[in-house]
């Protein structure tokens, strides 16, 4: 039924109301409405799928063909398995292809649109509209209450307050990252209101900030990028990432750093390797033997590392002069300065730039098959609001699609 007809008959009851018109909410709506259920998606933003639009540098890294449970962090690492197994990257690729959207693999299984992330938003809106779901934007959610029939949702729209009712309520309001894009802690507050535990949310996939001498070194190198390795975390939480490290005016960024940030906790050391798997001492000795001995050690190192970085590593290791003059100890010191560089980040750039939220609605409180709250029948949580956080590289969208499918087909 059209929204106009609904208004005319003052029909405010829906089979399902979905809070949040992001990746998970839009995808879920198509499945629920596709079964002939009256479905309404509500969002306070003025446009749907804003994070999709800006994702992947405007081309949306919409999935990763290597998706496996090991690419997700959660207090319960088994929770995501069921939904991920029942909605795979191949399922989403099939949807993308049905809509004629051209795509390519960039690296490491990461799939991007050839043209624009806006195509993914348009595709989700099309699927949802064709299934018959309604979408209300610019709508503030004032209050949610449990009723005998399900839920009462009071909203404010066009300056008018109204209370809607529904049998099922899906919370797809995402995490707290990038508040200026409409992110809020709403989903966590709602979970707590219904007595569900929340694993403390923290910014993830986020650049590190540095202070003191480390900050000065990073600032001087701002813009330099190197294929490195970053190891962060302790014990079972330890993880290593072989990707680019980028020096910035505030500290460190780049894919390897963003990945590591999800495993790091305040005060912990992070190990950087700027030439992983390469013995710089050995390579420099070879160069000296091959006739480069008269070159400065800095010039010789600049053939193995970006030039500015080579200078900074030599300075930090306190090594200078001609290559031929270097003893074994100074070359080992140089190697360690590059490959065993232990730093303690001052912090992260926080919610302002974090790509995702670690933590969220505790999975112990949810069914891994349907995403329904065990203690509150009819209440579902999907997407980033749940304590399931993917690595960088399309995994977070794959979780949004898979969890939305799990709830959308179960309702
Ligand atoms: P999402 O955040 O998409 O949607 C939540 C919706 O709820 C929003 O529309 C918001 O307005 C609405 N909402 C919030 N609070 C509300 C309230 N109180 N009332 C009403 N509505 C409310 N992932 C990936 O796999 N590949 C990628 O390329 C990228 N790139 C990327 C770039 C950048 C800059 C960011 C910030 C993030 C990414 N991500 C990503 C992560 C990805 O965008 C994210 O994991 C998904 O969008 C999560 O989907 P959800 O639907 O759960 O939340």
Radius of gyration: 25 Å
Helix/strand class: alpha+beta
Instruction: Tally the beta strands.
Output: 21
> What ions, cofactors and ligands are bound?
dihydroflavine-adenine dinucleotide
Helix content: 25-40%
Report the biggest beta sheet as strand number plus sense, adding barrel if it closes. Answer: 7 strands, mixed
The stretches of 5 or more residues where confidence is low (pLDDT under 50) are 6-10
**Tally of contiguous helical segments:** 14
| Separation of the first and last Cα atoms | 19 Å
Dominant shape: elongated
Beta-strand fraction estimate? 15-25%
Summarize the structure.
This protein has about 400 residues and is an alpha+beta fold. The chain is about 30% helix and about 25% strand.
């Amino acid at each position: 039924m059209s929204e106009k007809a609904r208004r005319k008959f003052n029909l405010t009851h829906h089979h399902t109301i979905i809070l949040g018109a992001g990746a998970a909410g839009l995808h879920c709506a198509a499945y629920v409405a596709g079964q002939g259920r009256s479905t309404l998606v509500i969002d306070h933003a003025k446009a749907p799928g804003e994070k999709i639009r800006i994702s992947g540098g405007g081309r949306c890294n919409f999935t990763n063909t290597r998706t496996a449970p090991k690419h997700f962090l959660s207090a319960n690492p088994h929770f995501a398995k069921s939904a991920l197994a029942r909605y795979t990257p191949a399922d989403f690729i099939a949807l993308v292809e049905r809509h004629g959207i051209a795509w390519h693999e960039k690296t490491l299984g990461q799939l991007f649109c050839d043209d624009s992330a806006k195509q993914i938003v348009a595709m989700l809106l099309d699927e949802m509209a064709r299934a018959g779901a309604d979408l209300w934007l610019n709508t503030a959610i004032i209050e949610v209450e449990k009723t005998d029939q399900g839920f009462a949702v009071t909203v404010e729209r066009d300056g008018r307050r109204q209370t809607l009712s529904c049998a099922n309520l899906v919370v797809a309001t995402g995490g707290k990252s990038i508040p200026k894009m409409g992110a809020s802690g709403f989903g966590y507050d709602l979970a707590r209101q219904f007595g569900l535990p929340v694993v403390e949310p923290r910014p993830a996939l986020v650049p590190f900030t540095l202070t003191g001498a480390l900050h000065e070194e990073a600032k001087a190198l701002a813009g330099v990028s190197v294929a490195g390795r970053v190891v962060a975390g302790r014990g079972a939480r330890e993880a290593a990432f072989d990707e680019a490290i980028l020096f910035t005016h505030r500290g460190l960024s780049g894919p390897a750093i963003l990945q590591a940030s999800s495993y790091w906790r305040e005060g912990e050391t992070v190990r950087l390797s700027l030439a992983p798997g390469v013995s710089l001492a050995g390579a420099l000795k070879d160069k000296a033997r091959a006739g480069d001995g008269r070159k400065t050690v800095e010039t010789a190192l600049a053939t193995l590392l970006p030039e500015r970085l080579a200078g900074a590593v030599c300075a930090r290791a306190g090594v200078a002069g001609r290559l031929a003059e270097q003893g074994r100890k100074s070359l080992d010191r140089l190697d360690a300065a590059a490959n065993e560089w232990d730093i303690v980040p001052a912090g992260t750039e926080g919610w302002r730039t974090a790509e995702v939220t670690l933590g969220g609605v505790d999975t112990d409180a949810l069914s891994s098959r349907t995403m329904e709250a065990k203690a509150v029948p009819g209440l579902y949580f999907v997407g980033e609001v749940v304590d399931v956080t993917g690595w960088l590289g399309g995994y977070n969208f794959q979780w949004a699609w898979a969890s939305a499918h799990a709830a959308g087909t179960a309702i």
